[in-house]
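Me: Here is a favour to ask of a fellow structure person. Could you put it straight underneath, so I can go through it closely?

Assistant:
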Amino acid sequence: QLEHHIDYVFAIAEDTSAMRTKNRDGMMNFVQNLRPGYKMPDARTIKKILDAITETQLKAQMALINAVKAATKGGPAFGLQFDLWTKRKVRDAFMSLRLTFVTEDATTKARSYHDMLLKFGHFPKLRHTGQAIAVWVLHALASVDLAPKDITLATPDGAASGLKALVTMGVCFDACVEHQFDRAISHATGEAGKNGGDNPGCHALIM
């Protein structure tokens, strides 16, 4: 039964479905026809499974990070990317932080690229100041025993507050090309910016 519970948790996560999906008549009938007698897990069981998965993932992440730190003898070896966005209607903010790095097999010398989601969650501050962002990033790095000195280059979303956070932490950075391109188009078409500088030619080209 536990194996099916885990499969169910992965299914609702992959579809970004709510846990209450299991209470819908269509889902219940489908499951009972597929496996008669199976009782889908309750919220407490789902949370326990998610906690166990998170703990396993964290251990695997730490093993990789420590291996890279050992191979580079403590030198900077990690790329850092983050993005902060807001749900405008409720003014809730969310932030994601990713690590990128390369490992090398000691025997074959084959290299592998890793893109690791380090943290994703609610951003607690209403004002997205550089100081607030720096505190959030530093806390996330510290959770895997990393510090600004371990970062080779950061690629933020390009907002001034994010750049200020990196300056505060003393981390080298470069603007994200995709965000800059999106920002340029949004301003050119009048969909962003205080002046609303509409550009009919650019708008027609994009649309």
Summary: Helices lie at 2-14, 25-34, 43-71, 130-142, 160-169, 177-188, 200-206. The longest strand covers residues 92-104.
